Amino acid sequence: MAALTKVAGASTLLVVLWVGVCSAVCVEVPSETETVQGNSMKLLCISCMKREEVMANTVVEWFYRPEEEGEDDLIYVYENEKQPILPPTRFSGRLVWNGSKDMQDVSISVQNVSLNDSGVYTCKVNRTFDFDIHHHTVITSTLIRLTVVKEAGEDFTSVISEIMMYILLVFLTLWLLIEMVYCYRKVSKAEEAAQENATDYLAIPSENKENCAVPVEE
Question: SS3 of 129, please?
Fold first, then answer.
C-alpha cells in the first residue's frame, strides 16, 4: 500500500511540475510518508502564494518529534535563501534544502535516513508582507508522518498485476483445453461419419453400385 502511495505521489508531483512550468499554477500536494533506511527522503512541503504575494519575507522552519505526543524540536531554518546556524541535532549534516527560488516549494531532503528518523515532521512557513499601510503575516503548517522501514515492500500495483496475470493465464489455459476437446470431438465425429459412409457403401451389392454411377452425357 505504501508503494502504491509512492507511485501515486511521484506521478502527482510530475503533473504539478508540468502544470507549474506550462501555466505558472501552484498546487499543494501531500508528501510521501514512507521510505527505506539508507535512502534519501524528500519531505515535500508546498505553500502556494498569489501572484501579488510573491514579494514577501519568508521564513521556513522544520520541526521533528519522534512520537505523536512528543515535543517538537527545531531541526532546520531557511530564511531568504540563507540558513542560520542552529545548535547541533541528530539531523546535523543530513538536511539539504530542496525548495524553489520563489519560496513556494519549501521542501527539504533527509540524507541517509535511519529507522530512528520515523516520526512527525512539521513544515512551518511564516510570510510577512510589507504593504504601504501595515504589515501582514501569514503562517501555515504542514504535518508529515514519516515511517522508515528496513526493506522495501512489494509494490501493491505489481501484486495486483501479477494476480490478474495468473487469472488470465488460468482462463486462457481452460479456454485452450475446451477448444482442443471441441476440435477433437468434431474431428472424431467427422471420421466416424466418413467411416460409416464407407461401410454403408461397401455393404451395397455390386449391381446396385453400378446403378449408383452417374450417367455421362454425350
Answer: strand
Query: Can you tell me the distance from the alpha carbon of 184 to that of 202, in angstroms, rounded to the nearest whole number?
Result: 27
* The residue type at 123: C
pTM, rounded to two decimals:
0.58
Cβ distance 60 to 99 under 8 Å? yes
Gap between the terminal Cα atoms of the chain: 86
Q: Whole-angstrom Cα distance, residue 180 to residue 187?
A: 10
Contact 92, 42 (CB under 8 A): no
32 three-state secondary structure:
coil
For residues 92 and 25, give the distance between their C-alpha atoms in angstroms, rounded to a whole number: 34
**Residue 7 identity:** V
pLDDT along the chain (218 residues), means of 10: 44 40 62 89 88 74 86 88 78 90 90 92 90 82 91 69 86 89 86 75 59 51
CA pseudo-torsion sign 95, 96, 101, 102: negative
E strands in the chain:
34-36, 41-43, 57-65, 73-79, 95-97, 108-110, 119-130, 135-149
Sheet holding 108-110, edge to edge: 41-43, 108-110, 95-97
